[in-house]
Design a protein that fits this description.
alpha+beta, five-stranded antiparallel β-sheet, 5 strands, 41% helix, globular, disordered C terminus
């Protein structure tokens, strides 16, 4: 069965999946579960990163102009291929991030308000909905703060959410320099050798590129809080993927190798009631 998560195959195969005539058909037959949103974001970032290095060939699919467009189109095709409940309570939204204004301006503020409203509509208590909205915004702000090579100039990114009854998935992704290059701009982390070490340092030890901030001593309060909501957090950058599974008895991160992918892709899945289960669109 086809999977849209890209750990198992390389960028060329992902590119071919999108470029081929009706190439998304294989995605339409894929199992749609709680990891879908993050996987779609990874696919979008893979393709856009490929476009940047193959501009001539990329003209064959000029309509795929931005990660948000790819993600939205892919999600729409997936949703159309699977039955979904006839209810107005399902919320799905994807938007681009190109500057700080996309988060703190009117469009970003409105998106966060809609996200919070969908959470409360689907059984999340207001204080928890507010906390999740804050977590979503904080993770999206990571793109603005760290993805670009120049301060205040983030790499292209996307953020989005999918909410159903007592269940939520949200994701942020960019095609910037990635965690390894970001950390290495701080001499304190110049020794970090690869993507896996960089992810582990940033996620589990709180390492940062900012020279005026000390590293933390373990998973952040935010990460632990999300994991405690029967959560699964997935971080992907460079050639590594780190997963924090709050559904297991141990709060332990698992790091694996993956296909090389520009930037950082982060997806979160939380549910009010265990066990975590697949959610079909």
């Amino acid at each position: 069965m086809t999977t849209i998560l890209l750990d198992a195959f390389d960028v060329d195969r992902a590119r071919a999946m999108v470029l081929a005539p009706n190439g998304l058909g294989r995605l339409e037959r894929a199992a749609v579960d709680g990891a879908t949103l993050g996987g779609i974001f990874e696919l979008a970032c893979t393709y856009v990163a490929w476009r940047q290095t193959h501009p001539a060939a990329a003209r064959l699919a000029e309509k795929w102009a931005a990660p948000s467009e790819i993600a939205s189109e892919t999600l729409a095709r997936l949703a159309g291929a699977h039955p979904r409940p006839s209810t107005e309570r399902i919320g799905v939204e994807i938007a681009p991030i190109e500057c700080a204004e996309d988060l703190i301006g009117s469009h970003g503020t409105a998106l966060q308000q809609r996200f919070k409203h969908m959470l409360t509509t689907n059984g999340f208590p207001l204080p928890l909905a507010q906390a999740l909205t804050g977590a979503f915004a904080e993770m999206a702000d990571n793109i603005v703060q760290h993805s670009g090579n120049e301060e205040g100039k983030p790499a292209p990114g996307i953020w989005g959410y999918h909410v159903e009854q007592q269940w939520v998935s949200f994701a942020v992704a960019d095609i910037g320099r990635g965690v390894l290059k970001s950390l290495r701009t701080n001499s304190r982390h110049a020794h970090v050798q690869d993507g896996a070490s960089a992810l582990e340092a940033a996620v589990t030890n709180g390492a940062t590129r900012r020279t005026n901030q000390a590293s933390g001593g373990g998973f952040s309060t935010l990460h632990r809080a999300l994991a405690n909501l029967n959560g699964i957090l997935r971080f992907r950058s460079d050639t590594a993927c780190l997963v924090l599974d709050g559904c297991s008895n141990e709060r332990k991160a698992t790091t694996t190798n993956s296909s090389d992918l520009h930037g950082l892709q982060l997806s979160v899945i939380c549910a009010l009631r265990p066990p975590f289960g697949a959610r079909k669109l």
